[in-house]
Design a protein that fits this description.
The chain is an alpha+beta fold and 105 residues long. It has helices spanning 39-52, 55-63, 79-89; strands at 9-15, 22-28, 71-75, 101-102. The model has no long low-confidence stretch (mean pLDDT 83).
């Protein structure tokens, strides 16, 4: 089952407002169908992403429990462009704005 037409654009950050802290991925996706994606699909995505991380992350996540579960948040298509436009409009240099990453398959 292929839910995405293309790999998602994404950005991430370390959320330290919780104990333990955890990583949050923001995905901007274009859905290939109108039906909402069940939460279990995103849980599977989180598991797949976490399994791709290195042993230090996995140790903190599983053994030490010093890292909380990965979280994926979906944002509307065009959100990252709007964010860049806002930052530049507030005086940020376009040259200093870090482009959102697109995962290449």
């Amino acid at each position: 089952l292929r839910l995405l037409r293309s790999p998602p654009e994404y950005t991430s950050y370390a959320d330290t407002s919780t104990i333990p802290g955890h990583y949050v991925l923001y995905w901007e996706i274009s859905l290939s169908r109108a039906t909402p994606i069940p939460p279990s699909v995103f849980e599977d995505c989180c598991l797949t992403v976490e399994e791709s991380f290195n042993s230090v992350y996995r140790q903190g996540r599983v053994s030490d429990k010093s890292i909380g579960p990965l979280e994926i948040k979906i944002v509307e298509s065009g959100t990252f462009d709007k964010l860049m436009d806002y930052a530049v409009g507030q005086g940020a240099s376009i040259n200093q704005y870090k482009a959102i990453q697109e995962k290449r398959g």
